[in-house]
Design brief:
Layout: E1 2-7, H1 13-22, E2 28-32, H2 44-58, E3 63-68, H3 71-84, E4 89-90, H4 96-103, E5 109-114, H5 116-120, H6 122-131, E6 137-141, H7 143-150, H8 156-167, E7 175-180, H9 189-195, E8 200-203, H10 205-218, H11 231-237, E9 242-246, H12 251-263
Length: 264
């Protein structure tokens, strides 16, 4: 039995990649809802319906756990999913809490990048209210970055110009951490690090995979693995360890997902 990762598009591959490094004994399935990508511009009702349809399809496969590798889908649908299925379902949330803790004593602020829909959800606003005692968290939607990612557009000049335009209203010297609150965004982590070398860039992938590992161990369903692959070997071998599926049954998108896994 494998572990399924779900997203509207290729963004959740950043989470899958983390899991493949940390859980090398497991087999993986990655499912993209290509009929409805992107989710960030949809209504909550639409996203809830699309997620349910996709999870119904995933559970027809031989899977023992599902990771909702999408902050938007988690914020809208996770409660209903956990009540509706009898296998472990792990969600995501922007890494606001660790980012706030990093900056609690520095006087620096935290800037969260996410989709508009994620930022509107009570799950996100409640999270910020709960952990941001010093009121140091700001939020910025970057919907176009999802579109760039889905097009596999990693042109440094294009992406640099995009970030500079979006961040022009912000005094970036006041920020200590940027939180990548959409799973598409870590594809641009290295570009951000070069633009802002003094700012920490964090995302929720590692925390999500830690939680996944804990859930598997608690349920005693962890596969005993061979020795962990050296990180330098992982990128070349990942595509052999995962099955890709998409709601649109598009061979071209399957190839895109395979390419994205090589890139990350």
């Amino acid at each position: 039995m494998g572990i399924a990762f779900f997203d509207s598009g290729i963004g959740g591959i950043t989470v899958l990649h983390e899991a493949m490094k940390r859980l090398p004994g497991e087999s993986f399935l990655y499912f993209a809802d290509t009929l409805h990508v992107p989710y960030g511009t949809k209504t909550s009702e639409e996203v809830n319906k699309y997620v349910k349809q996709s999870i119904d399809q995933i559970t027809r496969e031989d899977v023992k756990a599902i990771v909702i590798a999408c902050n938007t889908a988690t914020s809208i649908a996770i409660s209903g999913l956990r009540n509706g299925y009898d296998i472990p379902i792990i969600g995501m949330e922007p890494a606001v809490k660790p980012a706030v803790e990093m900056n609690r004593s520095t006087g620096k602020r935290v800037l969260v990048f996410a989709t508009e829909l994620t930022l509107k959800q009570s799950k996100y606003t409640d999270l910020v209210s709960r952990v941001d005692e010093q009121c140091i968290v700001d939020s910025l939607p970057l919907p176009e970055l999802v579109e760039y990612c889905e097009a596999l557009n990693f042109d440094i000049r294009v992406i640099n110009d995009y970030f500079r335009a979006k961040l022009a209203p912000f005094n970036m010297s006041t920020y200590g951490t940027i939180v990548l609150g959409c799973t598409h965004y870590p594809f641009y982590k290295n570009i951000l690090r070069k633009l802002f070398p003094d700012i920490q860039i964090v995302d929720g992938s590692a925390g999500t995979v830690r939680r996944l590992s804990q859930v598997l161990k608690s349920a005693d369903i962890v596969n005993v693995q061979a020795p962990v692959k050296a990180q330098t070997q992982v990128s070349a071998q990942l595509s052999m360890d995962v099955k890709f599926m998409c709601s649109g049954n598009e061979p071209a998108y399957i190839r895109k997902m395979e390419r994205a896994l090589e890139i990350i």
